[in-house]
Amino acid sequence: MDDKILEVLHLKKHFTVGKGQVLQAVNDVTFNVKRGETFGLVGESGCGKSTIGRTILGLYDKTDGDVLYDGRNVHDLNEKDRFQFYRRMQMIFQDPYASLNPRSTVKEVISEPMEIHNIYRDKKEQLNRVYQLLEEVGLNRDHANRYPHEFSGGQRQRIGIARALALEPDFIIADEPISALDVSVQAQVVNLLKALQIQKGLTFLFIAHDLSMVKQISDRIGVMYLGHLVELTESTTLYDDPLHPYTKALLSAIPIPDPDIEEARERIILKGELPSPINPPSGCVFRTRCPMAMEICSKTKPAWQEVTQDHYVACHLYDETVENKEPVKSLIRN
Amino acid sequence: MDKILEVKDLHVTFSTYGGTVKAVRGVNFYLNKGETLAIVGESGCGKSVTSNAIMRLIPEPPGKISNGSIIFKNKELTTLSEKEMRSIRGVDISMIFQDPMTALNPTLTIGTQLMEGLQQHQQITGDQAKSKAIEMMNLVGIPNPAERLKQYPHQFSGGMRQRIVIAMALICKPELLIADEPTTALDVTIQAQILELFNEIQEVTGVSIILITHDLGVVAKIADRIAVMYAGKIIEVGTKREIFYQTQHPYTKGLLHSVPRLDLQGEKLTPIDGTPPDLFSPPQGCPFTARCPLAMEVCDKVYPVTTERSDSHKVDCWMQDDRAKQLLATSAEK
């Protein structure tokens, strides 16, 4: 059961942004994704979640660390192997308006990957596969000759999904696949992704900022803050027993569509704003906004540790070697 | 209670090469002094057009308020001249837009932009305007206001910019504030801060708020009453509790069931199938018929009469008709 399809080990991705400054988009992130599961990666804008997705796929070169797919290092693949690797891992993008070429018909959009990889010699066979894919994602074959502008956002996202499925990959990275869609349509797309996963045994890395949707679809969730993974566990545990103060604040900030519950809830309102990843705070990156910040937090980076089985957190509060856990107000900058 | 705003039978159309789009088709609602009314609906339902019509911000041509009246404090707004309207905008009615990145002028300091409205509408010296601006910045929670007045928008984060936009909207002490998706572009932890700010501002200033949103969680938190819009019409309106706990319209029910809830385990999302109708030629009957699980023959032909379930709760649905209830009973017997 513990068959790891993807292992991300101490991954770092830094960008040089001029004037000798370095933007630390992803810093020492370690996690693995098991075959057939949906792994959710959540965090607010600028936390590095999309950068991780792109670095895993090899769209960005890593700065340090390793990405292992089925035991092979993705960044060390030669050109030929990398080409083959893309048949196994595909991506669904956020904006269904920008990710489809407006001058290509749906048929061309979906068959392009098949042509690049030279899968079908017979054009007719290829066309049948396009029709089949369209039907699998809830569209129909009449749509094949139309252009993207003739479709609504939800339908376009279905086309994007069909394109990602064209090469029959095992692993799909979905980067905010539903955030550009209306609420009633979001549920359509999420249900489609779930159905396809069961049908084809796909593994998903689902990147999103909407924790309630991520919890709905994911088996396990990793929470990110300013380039760091701060907590990782099963999605039900994350909601029932969040450990990291950031996870707690994030959960409490999400409004629940039920007035009685909403009015009775106690809310942790985080002070201040996200610090810059160019000049992140010393020690724990969250300590400038953390209501529990202690003396050690500004000095030492908290270790990534397994607190209970399969529940990882990076926070000094759960480190037994830390003696003084008295909160220190002055560490919080406004 | 005093009604501060009353909108009656409002119709807004846009002439395009493709024909006339009937964006708002007979909208009725009112707003009491000091309350928050949320207008909820998906993209293209007419919620933003409705709010722009109140501000008389519909570009004419191509747009036009083709029928109806908007009464603000016993004054009819639809017939006012542009000059008269200018003395109302920003003074009596203010608006907050969705995107704080584009709502501010990047070439002017925050201070200039904050004081501009004030100096436009009031006889006031520069020093007085400045102290007013500082007072507003304190109210919306911007630290070091005197210093930050001299800064430009790009020196502020998204959440801070939205605070500035709110300060600008409130500086002339309006009685009505229209907020069009004010937190949609913000991260959840920042959204929580801004929603908290709305609560505080309403307590301090007693301003009435129309909140345009698609997020039912936000609505559950801060609305008093809710109007649900679909295809240019308000199909259900009621107090927050009536809409959430005595939901009548199938579309409202659909919306509530299609959003995932953080506090529930293993719920299945039920999306609303299909897409909203084309407003070039809206259906004659109920616009939701094609997507409605309960649709009857009559729904396609005649728009439902408004049923008043209580003083505050009104529904446009044929299921409210006694004859429909009989029909249901007989079909259940079969």
UniProtKB/TrEMBL annotation, chain A:
Answer yes or no on keyword ATP-binding: yes
PROSITE patterns in the record: ABC_TRANSPORTER_1 (PS00211), ABC_TRANSPORTER_2 (PS50893)
In terms of SUPFAM superfamilies, this protein maps to: P-loop containing nucleoside triphosphate hydrolases
Record keywords, A-Z? ATP-binding, Nucleotide-binding, Transport
Task: Outline the extent of the ABC transporter domain.
Answer: 6-251
In terms of domain of life, where is this protein from?
Answer: Bacteria
Among the record's GO biological process terms, what is one?
A: peptide transport
Q: Which family does it belong to?
A: Belongs to the ABC transporter superfamily.
This chain's protein is named: ATP-binding cassette domain-containing protein
From TrEMBL, chain B:
**Which CDD domains does this chain map to?**
ABC_NikE_OppD_transporters
Protein's name in the database: ABC transporter ATP-binding protein
Among its keywords, does the record have Membrane?
yes
> Keywords assigned by UniProt?
ATP-binding, Cell membrane, Membrane, Nucleotide-binding, Transport
Q: What is its main location?
A: membrane
Q: State a GO cellular component annotated for this protein.
A: plasma membrane
Q: Which Pfam families match?
A: ABC_tran, oligo_HPY
Membrane topology type:
Peripheral membrane protein
A biological process from GO: peptide transport
One example GO MF annotation: ATP binding
Give start-end of the signal peptide: none
Q: Which family does it belong to?
A: Belongs to the ABC transporter superfamily.
Specify the ABC transporter domain's residue ranges.
Answer: 5-256
Localization per record: Cell membrane
